[in-house]
Every structure is written in structure tokens, then in C-alpha cells.
Amino acid sequence: MASETAIQKATLELVNASGRARVYRQNTGRRGRVSFGLCVGSSDLIGWDLIGGRFVAIELKVPGKEPDEAQAAFLEAVNRAGGIGIWGSDPLSIMAELQGRLRP
Q1: Does domain 4-101 have CATH number 3.30.565.10?
Q2: What is the pTM (predicted TM-score) of this model?
Q3: How many C-alpha atoms does 96 have within 13 Å on its Cβ side?
Q4: Which phi and psi angles does 45 have, rounded to 5°?
């Protein structure tokens, strides 16, 4: 089974090489009293559609896992606002879903 780090690396490379979207690794967490990252539940990869300018959020999981409540709520909020919020564990499937939601 692939690690989330391996899935992340492959997805990041695949999406950015497509020329259709640009995504970056986004860390969220807390060290002592200092919080960092976009917000609780924000996705592993965030960026934008290079043609339409829509916000893109991709949550990555190892096979058999699903987003937790905060992660699912973040993806739902992105989609409701007109962005592209998706999750998955297979880089090729993630890319296929992303391409299906990008404007021509």
C-alpha cells in the first residue's frame, strides 16, 4: 500500500505537469501555542485552475481511508463556492476527476 506521502508526491507532479492546474502542498497543524496552515480541515494540496482561475483543493488519503468531518466540510465549502474540491487515494483517478471538472 502506498503511503500518503507517496500519493501526495505523485498527485502533485501529475497535476502540475498537466498544464491545467497548479497546486502546492499545504501543511496544517499546531506546534505548542502556534497554529499554522490555512484552517482546520483544509486540504493537503491547494491551488487554482490555470484556465478558469477556480480554487482547487485536493485531500489525499491512503486506500481505505476517507476525509474526517472537518476535511469533508472544507471540500464541501470549496465546491459550494464554485471551486473544485476533491479527495482520493489514486493519483490517476484524482487527475481524471480534476480534468472532468475543469472548464475546457
Answers
A1: no
A2: 0.92
A3: 6
A4: -120, 130
Of 26, 25, 52, 50, which Cα lies nearest the Cα of 40?
26
Q: What tens digit of pLDDT does each residue of 27-83 get?
A: 887 888 888 888 889 999 999 999 999 999 999 999 999 999 999 999 999 999 999
- Determine which helix (DSSP H) or strand (DSSP E) holds 21, and give its type and residue range: strand 21-25
Q: Where are the alpha helices (DSSP H) in 18-104?
A: 69-80, 91-101
Instruction: For strands 55-60 and 84-88, give the pairing.
Output: parallel
List, in order, residues 6 or more apart from 27 with CB less than 8 Å away: 36, 37
Q: How far apart are CA 14 and CA 36, in angstroms?
A: 26
Identify any residues that bridge with 35 across adjacent strands, giving them in sequence order: 30
